[in-house]
Design goal:
This protein is α/β, with parallel strands linked by helices and 384 residues long. Helices cover 38% and strands 14% of the residues. The strands form five sheets. A seven-stranded mixed β-sheet has the order 2-10-9-6-5-3-4, sandwiched between helices. Strands 8-7-13 form a three-stranded antiparallel β-sheet, with no helix packed on it. Strand 3, helix 4 and strand 4 form a beta-alpha-beta unit. Helix 10 packs across helix 13. The longest helix is centred in the C-terminal third of the chain and has 19 residues.
């Protein structure tokens, strides 16, 4: 059996052909493929606007910038996420606070969030960064109601969940990243994600003002739009109106994204099929499988189980050429965040989850033979 990683990109011949076609075109960057990718992605998640950027971290940074995060501003996120969800607040001079996770879904505990906000004066916090963790959608409808009560903005970190949805109070499916309840939503196109562009990210929104700001900040704060210029010396003229960044996505990457997007729905369906097989195989064992809710369509970026001897299982799988992964070490326990005052014991649900979590192989091209082998080795270890 060849080595099996926890995630793997799939590059088809169609992907290669479109990238090669773009390489032969007049534009390698700042060309038409970026716009095409943005338009198609916005349609895929049912949002009005999409802005392609260099990676998911850049997306988080830009979102904080356009929402005005500054020194002294406090923003709440979850400790179970990749560090970038929190770091982007710090990039803008803000302060990060955390709310523990729901032990079932592993997403931010909305009851605990309400209790935390109620214990502080209105105005203490500026915004929220919920994470659709592992592909499980946060109930952003409820989150919006909470946010409005305390005058907070919402950046939905949907990197794990394009194609996933939850069911709102009216019985309608709300796709992750559609912007009905959040101000801004971000995605990543790292190779192990649903859509791979090598590196890359996307921001979606339904707010035209924020959309225009994102376009400006993505490209050094520079504009050539005639109606925005304070002067105009001629057709060459441009102005740097804000201190922005070079967070652009290339046309080469966008071409790969456009092609990958064509099979994105099928990819999520395949992930759900793989998850169902895992769930069935582990039923009745000393294994906690992902929470399943009929009102949610899980995007299954990750398939996470919990076992008592997590390190033992991790090492056993590695010995058998199965390279599982751990998602994530709680952000507040990272050395940098410990220097900011966080410590073990601050978020017991997140810490208990971390002690037992392990991500098994989950990607659309995982073969039945490979999955059977993973299942066999997990059961061997747990049953020993």
């Amino acid at each position: 059996m060849n080595p099996i990683g926890y995630g793997r990109q799939f590059i088809s011949q169609k992907d290669i052909d479109l990238v090669v076609e773009t390489l032969k075109s007049d534009y390698l960057t700042q060309g038409p493929m970026v716009s095409e990718f943005e338009q198609k992605f916005a349609k895929y998640v049912d949002a009005k606007y999409a802005v392609a950027v260099s990676n998911g971290t850049a997306a988080l940074h830009l979102c904080n910038m356009v929402l005005g995060t500054k020194a002294g501003d406090k923003v709440i996120t979850t400790p179970i996420t990749f560090a970038a969800s929190a770091n982007a607040v710090l990039y803008c001079g803000g302060e990060v606070d955390f709310v523990d996770i729901d032990p079932k879904s592993y997403t931010i505990d909305l009851d605990a969030l309400e209790a935390k906000l109620a214990s502080h004066p209105v105005g203490t916090y500026k915004g929220l960064v919920p994470v659709d963790f592992a592909g499980y959608p946060v109930d952003v409808e409820r989150l919006r109601a909470i946010a409005d009560q305390y005058n907070l903005w919402i950046i939905e970190d949907a990197c794990h969940a394009p194609g996933g949805y939850f069911t709102d109070k009216q019985g309608e499916h709300q796709l992750c990243g559609n912007g009905r309840f959040s101000d801004l939503q971000i995605f990543s196109f790292h190779p192990v994600k649903h859509i791979a562009t090598g590196e890359g990210g996307m921001i979606t929104t339904n707010n035209e003002e924020l959309y225009k700001k994102l376009l400006l900040y993505r490209t050094h704060g520079i504009t050539k739009e005639a109606e925005l210029l304070t002067e105009n010396h001629g057709g060459w003229y441009y102005e740097m109106q804000e201190l922005g960044y070079n967070y652009r996505l290339s046309d080469i990457q966008a071409a790969l994204g456009v092609s990958q997007l064509d099979r994105a729905k099928e990819g999520v369906a395949s992930r759900n099929k793989i998850a169902q097989k895992y769930n069935q195989a582990f039923k009745g064992m000393a294994i906690t499988t992902p929470f399943v809710d009929a009102s949610v369509y899980h995007a299954y970026h990750l398939y996470i189980i919990q076992v008592e001897d997590r390190k033992g299982l991790f090492d056993y799988l590695k010995e058998h050429q199965i390279f599982a992964q751990i998602h994530y070490i709680p952000v507040h326990l990272q050395p940098y965040y410990k220097k900011l005052g966080w410590k073990k014991g601050d978020f017991p649900m997140a810490e208990a989850y971390y002690e037992q979590c392990i991500s098994l192989p989950m990607f659309p091209t995982l073969s039945e033979e490979e999955q059977d082998y993973v299942i066999e080795k997990v059961i061997e270890f747990v049953s020993a």
